[in-house]
Amino acid sequence: MLIRRPHPGDSAAIRPSEITSESVYLNRRTLLQAALAAGVTGIGAGWASEAGAVSELNVQRNPKYSLSDAPNSYEDITTYNNFYEFGLDKSDPSENSGRFKPTPWTVTVSGEAEKTGKFALEDLLKPHTIEERVYRMRCVEAWSMVIPWDGVPLGDVLKQFQPTSKAKYVAFKTVLRPQEMPGQRSAVLDWPYVEGLRIDEAMNPLALLAVGVYGKTLPNQNGAPLRLITPWKYGFKGIKSIVEIRFTERQPPSTWNISAPHEYGFYANVNPNVDHPRWSQARERKIGAGLFGSRVPTLMFNGYEKEVASLYQGMDLKKYY
Amino acid sequence: MPSTRVIRRYIKPAVFIVCALPLLSLVLATFNIGGASLGANPVEKIQDTFGQWGLRFLCITLAVTPLRDWLNMPWLVQLRRMLGLYAFFYVLMHFLTWLILDQGMFWPGILDDIGKRPFITIGFAALVLLVPLAVTSTNRMMRRLGKRWKSLHRLNYVICLLAVWHYYWQVKADTTEPLIYLAIVLVLLGWRAWKARPRRSGASNEGAVAREG
């Protein structure tokens, strides 16, 4: 194991920078690259056949997407999750997702595009290099993490399908498998989970289709084997275990918006000036900051203002929350 | 019925220790003793645990009078003050965790939240209402207030409803648990209302019992 996990004796107040120090992290990268050079792992062969297991990915660091903050520990990223398909508590997804089988996986592409149909995940990814990008993740519940995702730019994948001029939006759907996803057996949300983006949002270089975290395939609790990452939006936009991509002319529905329209909008952009009706979004708790790490101010578009602000020029963000 | 000596020397200390176990579990987890851990978000964990137990002890305290009657165990009432003070303790710790660890005593944010967020306003109101009950929980205050003591302590009915409401408004999607608490509180309050219902033949003994609780 190349990733240093916190020892049981470690104090709860340890900072993430101490849990995964930069040197350990970079060292891990060197080892990964060495493995890569030796031709150890290929994409198709990289996927685990066993449920709940993860395997090494062949990834290329994209230095353009780095942060000065140290990433959260692998442990924090994989044990503190909102994935209601596996239960409501943060620890439920890691505890209840062992039966989920993310392989083999196919994605159905439909709607306003030239090349639609069913695609094996391997085939979707084949033309692309899997990049590692360190992104901030801001949950609508006012906590945040820093996560090294591995994936391919969403826009690059979508262009493969040659969307037509009618494709104004892109909709995503999570797999529906109540047998393997115990949370789907209760009607907490309207299953299956659906999400959507405006096409220009989807084509923004920041939008990522993630297949891994920390150089390994996604664990089930993080949305294996394929999930969306839009770091300027609240975490719930990052739909997990995607089985369907549909290009549409009209704005597609999104699950939390259906559940509570006055609390969760279609856009869900991180915005410290627009509060959730029940709590403030002005500040956030950084996971890993420990018992006495107080909240820090939330940044507009989660700190990605330069990259995405132009998408929303002239829009009233209080109305389109 | 156990003798006063048994209640004082054994039952009360035992109940005192049992009621402190949630606090103990948090202390162990904070220092990672025995493999316990507060997890990725320790502040949330502490705050939730205190809040949950605050609500549970409010319900337990509210259940003492009905249980006394249902089980015919009049001595249970002797535990009620301790249970009520534990409820106050856990609710207060829940509030202090929010104030100090969660908000980091960032006063503009705190005052804004208490004023603007209904679920926080309600929770804060419940805490404020608990203060006079805790202050008047001594024997001396009971004697001084006489009949008014009972009226004052009926505030607990309102407090329990506010606490459940606070919880209900705080959850994101699944309201099952808060609704279970609501059902419990409604049963305990409904029983009181039923006992106190007006009778054609004047106040019965049962009615007198209900007025005590």
| Overall geometric form of chain B | globular
Average pLDDT confidence of chain B is 91
Question: How many angstroms does the end-to-end distance of chain A come to?
Answer: 42 Å
- How much helix is in the residues of chain B? over 70%
Q: Count of DSSP E strands of chain B?
A: 0
Following the backbone from N to C, one meets helices and strands of chain A in this order, namely HHHEHHEEHEEHEEHEEEEHEEH
Q: Tell me about the largest β-sheet of chain B.
A: none
Keywords:
heterodimer; A: 321 residues; alpha+beta; Sulfite Oxidase, Chain A, domain 2; 13 strands; globular; disordered N terminus; B: 213 residues; mainly alpha; disordered C terminus
How would you describe this structure to a colleague?
The complex is a heterodimer of chains A (321) and B (213). Chain A has a single domain (16-312), classed as Oxidoreductase, molybdopterin-binding domain (Sulfite Oxidase, Chain A, domain 2, Alpha-Beta Complex). Helix content of chain A is 19%, strand content 21%. Chain A contains ten helices and 13 strands. Chain A has helices at 16-19, 22-37, 43-46, 74-79, 92-96, 121-125, 154-160, 199-203, 255-259, 305-308, and strands at residues 60-61, 106-111, 117-120, 131-138, 143-153, 169-174, 194-198, 208-213, 216-217, 227-229, 242-248, 283-286, 296-297. In chain A, the strands form two sheets. In chain A, strands 1, 4, 5, 8, 9, 10, 12 and 13 form an eight-stranded mixed beta sheet that branches. Chain A starts with 15 loop residues before the first helix and ends in a 13-residue tail after the last helix. Chain B is an all-alpha fold and 213 residues long. Chain B has one domain (43-195). In chain B, α3 (42-71) crosses α9 and α5 (107-116) packs across α6.
